[in-house]
Amino acid sequence: VEVAQLYLGIPDAGEPLKMLRGFERLPELELGQLAHVWFPLQARDLQVYSAVEKTWHAVDGKYRVYVGSSSRDIRLTGEFVLCGGHQAGTMQPKLNCKP
Residue 4 and residue 12: Cα distance in Å, rounded? Predict the structure, then answer.
């Protein structure tokens, strides 16, 4: 049984390089067979806790995305840029910024 795991690399937050943000157990697959996995992210998945401010907040910058069977077995990578947090009521990143 394979479990697909989603990790995010949060920019310049002093956090671990890869933080587990989701996982999904896959059905039994034959050798070479593919499966699609959907990882919906919530606002909290993009946030880190500030002990100084005593609150959670999103960090602007380039987020790295990793998917694999473990943090040491990454099979897919990607990235996106978050600027100014997220648009009110959505998880749509603001794209009018430079990474």
Answer: 26
pTM: 0.79
Burial of 6 (C-beta count, 10 Å sphere; 0-12/13-18/19+): buried
CA distance 25 to 49: 28
Buried b / exposed e across 42-51, counting CB within 10 Å, b at 16+?
Answer: eeebbbeeee
| One pLDDT digit (tens) per residue for the chain, 99 residues | 789 999 999 987 688 899 999 999 998 888 888 888 999 888 889 888 888 888 888 888 889 999 999 999 999 999 988 877 654 444 555 544 554
Q: How far apart (Å, rounded) are the C-alpha atoms in residues 51 and 93?
A: 25
